[in-house]
Every structure is written in structure tokens, then in C-alpha cells.
Design goal:
Blueprint lengths: L1 E2 L16 E2 L10 H11 L4 H18 L28 H15 L2 H21 L25 H8 L5 H13 L3 H5 L6 E2 L4 E5 L5 E5 L2 H11 L9 E5 L15 E3 L2 H11 L1 H4 L17 H13 L4 H8 L8 H4 L3 H10 L2 H6 L1
Antiparallel strand pairs: 1-2, 3-4, 4-5, 6-7
Helix pairs in contact: 1-2, 2-4, 6-8, 6-11, 11-12
């Protein structure tokens, strides 16, 4: 609302109250996809988070159009439906949406489903404030309980086996940097070559909330980076194998090679595909394609857990993790599988008699 200035006195010299006049809200975008982009820019979503938000909102685009969201290989290359954002106000949508969300929740892990629901509700709330839709069709959809997973920290021998996998230089560098820096995967994927300071083994990332912060790596990453950069001086650090398709944002295209920035979705798929055998060592070859591998986040979790096991101080763990609260470190302070195994072995009566 805008306030008109007071220009005259009322009777008996009293000031007239200012009159309010309505300011028209911005016109709604032509499609749901356009509404997503308006939300990501208008709501000030950090660049490091925008990629994840866009993926989640694309997933919800199918369900908001009354269609099940594709999963697995079927998702790659699938084009989201085109519909006006006002269609979210269809009175019949909540019932259909609840069924689609329940089916997806049965097929996916609780953490993913809850994160996607939270992102969808944030966007819908923002669209409501713009006057583009009238109500939230996700009301009534409940978050799924997510019991804590105590096995997220990988054993050190698993990390060692991971480094020996026969994968491309890009993957070797990305995984090494993830583990050595304990950074988030989406933060590293947003890195540009000009953000790196190789001589100091550090780089600038845009963290959650939009803050610019330092990450640090070790010799493993330092040895691989020069080969990955290959004399490039600017543009995305981690690139796809092919030329960027038409319409790719300029910031996500390497000006020297024409290739696009590697997406989180593709990086996640590659890591999962390459770690299925490591995650399921007893699986038969015919079953392995239907099983899950490790998630990228486990490298960050493992790095911080191994730091804690090695006696790293709380202030240093806070700096490494870039968490704001000490309470957030509790998930890493729990000893991992190697530490517990050593503790049990050291107290084995049979082992002590043998010694």
C-alpha cells in the first residue's frame, strides 16, 4: 500500500488522515516454470541453493499438474508440464496432489520427500503473497518421519576404495574436494575457476544463506586440479561432457569450451552409480541396477566425523563445517564405525590372551 501525502487541513485546523491507495501487484507469469524462476530471483534464494530449489520445484511441477513425477533414469531429459501458475488454485487439486505425494513418499527416502515438500511450500507461500494464487494445495500433506541414519559416516577403508575406482578426472577431483574440504556438493558445483587460489589450497564458495566463505583442501585435490582446469582462467570449474544446450544461463557456460556447468542431479547420479557395489557388497550382479549407492553428502559427513574422531577441537569443527551452532556438530561427534570397531577389538578377551 502507498500513502498519499497530507496536502491540506481539515475542519478546526485538524490534519486530515492520509489516504491509502492500492499499488497493483506484479502480473502473474505466463507459466509455472516462469513462476519458479521469478520466485528464485525475487525471494533472494542463494545461488548455491537455487539449483536444489529448481530441481525440487520441477518435481513438484508434475504433481501440481496432476501427474506423477518421473524417477530414476526416466527423469533425465523429461520435460516438465506447461501450465499456468493459476491452475494451482484448482479446487480438485489437493485431493489428487495428496495421492501423488503419498505415492512418491513411498518410493523415495523421507529426507528427500520432506526437503522437496518444504521447498514447495516456501515457493507457494511467496506466490500467494504476490497474489498469483489464493491458497496452498499442500495443506494436509504431512512430513514423513525420518529416523536418524547412524551409518552415514563411511569407514576409512571405504574411502580408500573409493579413491581407487576407475572414473573420469572430473569425478576424481570432485569427490576428493568434497571429502578434503568437507563442503556441500552444491557449493562446490557453483565454484568457478576464478574462485580458486591453488597456491593456498583454498577457494571462495557461496554458502547457505548467501554468505561468501573459504573452503580448504589438501594435497589430493591440489594434485588433480591443474589437470582439470587445463589452462582455463574463468567459468564453471566442473563441466559437462557436451556443449551447453541453447538457453543455458551464461553464468553456467564455460566461455572457453562452451560446455555447461555440471548439475547436482547428474553429479549425484554418477556418484550413486559408481558406488552401488561398494554400498551393496553382497548383491548379485542382476540386482545391482535396482539398488542405491552412496549419497554425495556422505563424503562431507565422513570427513567431519573422521575429524572429530581424530580429536579436532569444537571451534575447528565449527569452522570446517561452517555450522552456526555447536549443537549441529552432535551428528559428527558420534564415533564412526572404525572407531567403534577398534574399541571393541581392543577389549576382546581372546585378543588380549593371544597378545
Amino acid at each position: 500500500m502507498a500513502i498519499e501525502p497530507v496536502t491540506e487541513l481539515g475542519s478546526r485546523g485538524a490534519l486530515r488522515l492520509p489516504r491509502a491507495r492500492g499499488v497493483p501487484l506484479p502480473a502473474p507469469p505466463s507459466s509455472y516454470t516462469a513462476a519458479v524462476e521469478r520466485y528464485l530471483t525475487g525471494a533472494g534464494i542463494a545461488k548455491s541453493s537455487a539449483r536444489i530449489y529448481r530441481i525440487s520445484l520441477t518435481t513438484w511441477g508434475w504433481m501440481l499438474a496432476g501427474e506423477p513425477a518421473p524417477t530414476g533414469p526416466a527423469r533425465r531429459g523429461a520435460k516438465p508440464p506447461v501450465f499456468p501458475v493459476a491452475a494451482i488454485g484448482d479446487p480438485a487439486l489437493p485431493e489428487v496432489l495428496a495421492e501423488l505425494a503419498a505415492a512418491r513418499a513411498d518410493a523415495m527416502d523421507a529426507d528427500t520427500v520432506n526437503r522437496e515438500l518444504s521447498i514447495a511450500r516456501k515457493a507457494i507461500g511467496w506466490w500467494q503473497r504476490q497474489g498469483w494464487i489464493t491458497y496452498d494445495p499442500t495443506i494436509g500433506i504431512e512430513r514423513r518421519p525420518a529416523p536418524p541414519d547412524r551409518t552415514k559416516a563411511l569407514a576409512e577403508n571405504h574411502i580408500a576404495v573409493l579413491w581407487r575406482l576407475d572414473v573420469a578426472l572430473r569425478e576424481k577431483t570432485f569427490w576428493k574436494m568434497l571429502y578434503e574440504s568437507a563442503a556441500r556438493a552444491d557449493e562446490l558445483l557453483c565454484l568457478n575457476v576464478e574462485d580458486l587460489y591453488p597456491q593456498d589450497e583454498r577457494g571462495k564458495i557461496t554458502a547457505k544463506g548467501g554468505a561468501t566463505e573459504w573452503i580448504h583442501w589438501q594435497s589430493g585435490t591440489a594434485q588433480l586440479l591443474p589437470r582439470l582446469i587445463a589452462r582455463r582462467t574463468r567459468g564453471p570449474l566442473f563441466l559437462t561432457d557436451r556443449k551447453a544446450p541453447a538457453g543455458t544461463p551464461t553464468l553456467d557456460v564455460c566461455p572457453e569450451t562452451g560446455r555447461a556447468r555440471l548439475s547436482y542431479r547428474r553429479a549425484k547420479e554418477i556418484f550413486e552409480e559408481n558406488t552401488r557395489l561398494l554400498a551393496n557388497p553382497l548383491a548379485s550382479p542382476e540386482d545391482i541396477e535396482n539398488l542405491d549407492g552412496w549419497t554425495l553428502h556422505r563424503l562431507r559427513h565422513s570427513a567431519l566425523t573422521h575429524d572429530a574422531e581424530g580429536g579436532t577441537s569444537t571451534p575447528m569443527l565449527l569452522a570446517r563445517s561452517r555450522h552456526a551452532s555447536v549443537r549441529s556438530l552432535e551428528r559428527y561427534a558420534r564415533p564412526g564405525v572404525d572407531a567403534v570397531a577398534r574399541h571393541v577389538a581392543e577389549r576382546d578377551p581372546a585378543a588380549r590372551r593371544h597378545t
